[in-house]
Amino acid sequence: MILPIFYSTIFYFHLNNYLREYVTKSDNIIGSLNVLLNSGFVVLFSNLFLNNYISDKFYYNTLLCCTGFYINDIFFKKNNKKELLIKSIHHFISFMGIITFDKYQDQVARLFFTEITNFPLQLRNISKELKFSKKIGTICIIIFYFMFLKMRVIDGNQYKNEVCSKNNIKDCVLVNGIHLLWIYWFCLLNLKIFQVIKYIFL
Fold first, then answer.
1. How many whole angstroms separate alpha carbon 60 and alpha carbon 110?
2. Considering only Cβ atoms within 10 Å of each terminal Cβ, which end of the chain, N or C, has fewer?
3. Which of 133, 132, 148 has its CA nearest to residue 190?
4. By C-alpha distance, which of 171, 42, 169, 152 is closest to 103?
5. How far is Cα 115 from Cα 41, in angstroms, rounded to an integer?
């Protein structure tokens, strides 16, 4: 358990230094590239596991590698206190989901597969930072909105209910926590969209 966490932490630490030295000085772009890499890694191996191409032990170890990303995201970045708190809660619940994998293999894999929703959001953030066409950002946000609604709000509720049906109060609280956090983010997204529409038409 310790080795995947240790090596992945070292990997993300050096990746950040490499990106800052040779690719970009923008913390926002570096952050987005980190999220894209971690999400792609998780989505790939979650899909392989759900389709029975890899063993549960191998998949469990790939999930442990996410911990390096979590540690990097919390301790090696400059965040405001509110953002740091939310990130810490999210990553803590995700880590607890990893260590309860044996009890909820299918649900954990499907919950981690929802990381695919990060792709359009981070691509939008990068395009905004690089001042690409606003149409690209708008398309990415529309795709992100409906992916997030379907996979994390609607389907996430189903996965939450499946975990809670096992009558383990601690695990039920954890999965409710991640689902409530997703709903909170979705409400913030709707608020921002409403503010944009209000600014345009009023």
1. 13
2. C
3. 148
4. 171
5. 10
Residue 171 is inside which H or E element, if any?
helix 169-201
For helices 27-50 and 2-22, what crossing angle results, to 10°? 140
37: enclosing H helix or E strand: helix 27-50
> Quick one: which of 44, 29, 159 has its CA closest to 100?
159
pTM of the model: 0.92
Residue 178's closest CA among 116, 95, 61?
95
d(CA 82, CA 88): 10
**Tokens 């389907």 — which residue?**
155
Distance CA 113, CA 46 (A): 6
Tokens of 179: 């689902």
The number of residues making up the chain comes to: 202
- For the chain, count helices (H), then strands (E): 10, 0
Average pLDDT over residues 163-167: 93
Question: How many CB atoms are closer than 10 A to CB 2?
Answer: 8
Residue 93 buriedness (CB in 10 A; 0-12 / 13-18 / 19+): buried
- Tokens encoding 198: 């209000």
Could you report the per-residue pLDDT of 87-126, keeping only the tens digit for each? 899 999 999 999 999 999 999 999 999 999 999 999 999 9
Measured from the Cβ of residue 191, the count of other Cβ atoms closer than 10 Å reads 10
Residue 201 predicted with pLDDT over 90: no
Write down the residue that tokens 């926002």 correspond to. 28
